[in-house]
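step=encode ok
step=design start
structure_in=
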């Protein structure tokens, strides 16, 4: 129980004695007055070496899976390291040519499926493909993303409550790792993960009943789970309530996520995965839709009613989701839908939990650029922002800048 503490104490005591012996020996050599000086110095050096060994042995960390559920030990970090840890770097480099190079890994927020609407329940097929790719977090900064469908987040899916959903997961033959899928909309073991473990080149399927309306995250739950998630394996599935949602002018799909890379923010080149950063919850990048946005893709006209499907792939940070210059007139907190669910009105910032989602709605009244952010604003420095561009006629009744002389009156 006290082994490592005893070793550290031993290290300190032996080290101190050894230093005294060495210093004393060196002083005596200067004076040339004492026999046995050389022996004392040798003993000091040996003592220092012993202290160093004791310190190293006492400092060896516990395996990273030691507190994980026992069923997940088999492939957690200490035995099967993350994609680009130093021990696996040769493995990765020897396979580097097999990965697809994706020009833009960031999924377009406009990539929202058409509403289901008022149809009756039916059987729906969903085909998902796990694929490991190389793409840019920002210009010149490359990362080995693990994805669904080659982009982050994975495709948004849309069904209705009462649908039977046949979900097929294929793992692309170019992948290096096994993957699976856990859909939070599923009621059953692992949300589907327990029956969809697929090796590269393999395909598995399962069927489930969409019992509960809501906006749900799906993600890879292959151990080590947080490693797979933080490489980009997450997305959203919307289970519409009976009758669907009221129509709006624009719907957008956004997911916050974290990237853990060695070398710090802005370091160019292919980034190694930062396992310790993942454990400590210190991502180098926090993004909307997988990368630092380069070109605004969300566009609307003055007067448009907007609906955002917002998720958080995590894995560590709660998102304080906010649109600068707007008020959400309607929020479905935690993306809860259905009889008895709360609907919030006039919300400035809403929480989006890791592994959770929210639906927010507002109408844009004034033209301009609107930044969507995690209002833990230091994360903007890490990429947690996306732009909504609104065009149209000025609306001075709602917002106008005042000239100095007007302001003085
Ligand atoms: Cu995976």
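sequence_out=
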């Amino acid at each position: 129980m006290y082994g490592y503490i005893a070793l550290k104490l031993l290290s300190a005591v032996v080290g101190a004695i050894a230093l005294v012996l060495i210093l004393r020996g060196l002083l005596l050599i200067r004076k040339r007055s004492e026999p046995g000086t050389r022996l004392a110095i040798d003993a000091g050096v040996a003592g220092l070496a012993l202290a160093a060994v004791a310190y190293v042995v006492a400092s060896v960390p516990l395996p990273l899976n030691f507190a994980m559920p026992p069923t997940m030990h088999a492939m957690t970090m200490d035995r099967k390291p993350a994609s680009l840890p130093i021990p696996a770097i040769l493995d990765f480099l020897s396979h580097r040519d097999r990965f697809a190079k994706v020009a833009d890994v960031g999924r377009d927020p406009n990539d929202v499926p058409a509403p289901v609407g008022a149809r009756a329940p039916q059987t729906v097929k969903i085909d998902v493909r796990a694929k490991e790719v190389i793409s840019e977090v920002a210009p010149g900064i490359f990362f080995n993303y693990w994805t669904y469908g080659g982009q982050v987040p994975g495709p948004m899916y849309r069904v209705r409550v009462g649908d039977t959903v046949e979900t097929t997961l294929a793992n692309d033959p170019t992948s290096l790792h096994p993957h699976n899928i856990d859909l939070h909309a599923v009621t059953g073991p692992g949300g589907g993960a327990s029956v969809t473990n697929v090796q590269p080149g393999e395909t598995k399927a399962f069927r489930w009943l969409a019992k509960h309306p809501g906006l749900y995250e799906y993600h890879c739950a292959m151990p080590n789970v947080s490693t797979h998630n933080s490489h980009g394996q997450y997305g959203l599935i919307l289970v519409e309530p009976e009758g669907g949602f009221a129509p709006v002018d624009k719907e957008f799909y956004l997911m916050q996520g974290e990237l853990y890379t060695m070398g710090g923010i802005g370091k160019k080149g292919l980034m190694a995965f930062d396992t310790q950063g993942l454990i400590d919850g210190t991502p180098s990048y926090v993004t909307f839709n997988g990368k630092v946005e380069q070109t605004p893709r969300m566009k609307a006209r003055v007067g448009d009613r907007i609906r955002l499907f917002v998720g958080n792939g995590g894995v560590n940070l709660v998102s304080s989701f906010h649109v600068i210059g707007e008020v959400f007139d309607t929020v479905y907190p935690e993306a809860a839908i259905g009889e008895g669910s709360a609907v919030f009105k006039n919300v400035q910032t809403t929480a989006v939990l890791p592994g959770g989602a929210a639906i927010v709605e507002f109408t844009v009244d004034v033209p301009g650029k609107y930044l969507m952010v995690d209002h833990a604003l230091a994360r903007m420095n890490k990429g947690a922002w996306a732009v909504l561009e609104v065009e149209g006629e000025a609306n001075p009744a709602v917002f106008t800048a005042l000239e100095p002389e007007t302001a003085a009156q």
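step=design ok
step=annotate ok -> DSSP finds six helices and 21 strands in the chain.
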